Structures are given as structure tokens and as C-alpha cells.
User: Fold Carbon-nitrogen family hydrolase from Streptomyces beijiangensis.
Amino acid sequence: MRASLIQMDVNPDETSNSRRQRAASLVREQSAADLVVLPELWPVGAFAFESFAEEAEPLEGPTYEAMSKAASDAGVWLHAGSIVERTASDSGSAAGDGPLYNTSLVFSPDGELARTYRKIHRFGFDRGEAVLMGAGEELVSVRLPETTLGLATCYDLRFPELFRALTDAGAEMFVIPAGWPERRRSHWSLLARARAVENQAYVLACGTAGTHAGVEQAGHSVVVDPWGEVLAEAGAGEEVLTVDLDPARVAATREQFPALKDRLLGLEPPRR
Ligand SMILES: NC(=O)CCC(=O)C(=O)O
Assistant:
């Protein structure tokens, strides 16, 4: 199974419309891949909080349209990263005045929307995403012919219980679009490997390059195998990281080193 992670440069000199067109062409160029991944909030920038409201789009908005077509043109599964999703109000009376969400879109090779995932852990403590967006509440996995993807977004990487729950739900490959800053790059690399090792799963973590809203991005997208080995790692700039994966390695690793079976906490009834 071949995966291509598109580590896009997100900077304020490019409009979201032009970046959408560029993303669509980059996806079309990956027709040799089975799975293509884009980063978190690439149309607007994960730290461009001031632009969230203006750049917010309905689920079936311009990013959806462009990515659905790009997925079907390339004939690939496409994790299209995330958008600022504008929702209708609870009453349904006025379109578009409900909460915003950081929502990921996954398309099948025929361009159909397979699943969405609303980021559960919002970044920013008492500002930014944490106050501007609603929190997702649903664990999401996506069944592909070769494997099962578990979805998470950027700051979610710091919460191991999410990944353990996805593992319990059958995930074998975590796909993590991100807009991770350079300042905490060491955490990114460490946590990506930790989530792979502790769950004996592949990690595909796709970040952004460039600088937006004054925040230099880490780049360094990474693919880690179920043993915790780094299979491929990008540099700091825009880059497509392509790697061949063997989904059978997940079951093999879990069988050869069955640490997941030795869990004692959080399981009912206790195993020992
Ligand atoms: N966009 C994000 O979720 C940023 C997360 C981050 O900077 C961190 O966890 O550190």
C-alpha cells in the first residue's frame, strides 16, 4: 500500500482559493498512491485564528468540491486534511451561524465523502481554536480495503487515550493532519513514535511548511511503522513524502510482541 503525504507550504502570500487549486493539482499528481494525506487547516492556516470566521466554509463548500474531484481524478483515497467548518445554528433557522469546527474530510477513490472527523482536543488553552471552535465528540475510523484508519488531528497527538480507543475500535493506521509549530518539533517527533509503539500501529503524520500568523511551522511530516521505526521523514519545506507500507505488519507485530494483550487497566473484567 502506497501513501503520499503532501506537506504544503501555508503562507499569507497565497489566497485560500489559489492554495485549493494547488492542493488539487498536487493530489492529482499522486495517482500512483493508494492513500493521499493533506495537513490540518491548510486552506487558512492552523494558527490564523483571525481568519477562521472569514475563511470558514460549509462542509460541502469549496474545499469539499475541489478535493472530491481531485480524489476521483487521481483514483485515490484522500484524507483531505481539515477545514474550518461553518455549521447551521441549532434551531436550523439561519444557515451558517452555528459553531465552527476543525473538520477533516476523507474521500473514497470515486470522490464520495467517506467520513468526517471533528477535532476533539482544541488547541490554545484560553484562546485561539479552544475558544473559537466547538469540540468534536465522535471517534472516527475508516475502513479501507487494506487496513483501518484511525483519525486524529494535530493537538490530539498529545492524548494517548484517544489513540488507545481508536486501537480498540480496530484502527491499524493513524492519520494525523497537523499544523505543528517548529518551536515544539521535538514533541511532534517523539509523540508520533510513541503513538506508533504503544499501539503497534502505523502513524502517518502530515504537517505544514512555511510561516503563517507569525508561527513558523515544523514541517517534518513523518511515517512511523508499528515497531516505532521512522520509515520516512520530510524536511522543513513543501514536499511530498511517499512511502510503501505493509498493512499485515500490524497484526504480525501485535502477534510477535503481544503487549496489548497484557493490559490490566481500563478493561472489564480484569484479566489477571
Ligand atoms: N494546531 C494544533 O493543534 C497545534 C498543536 C500544538 O502546537 C502542540 O500541541 O504543541
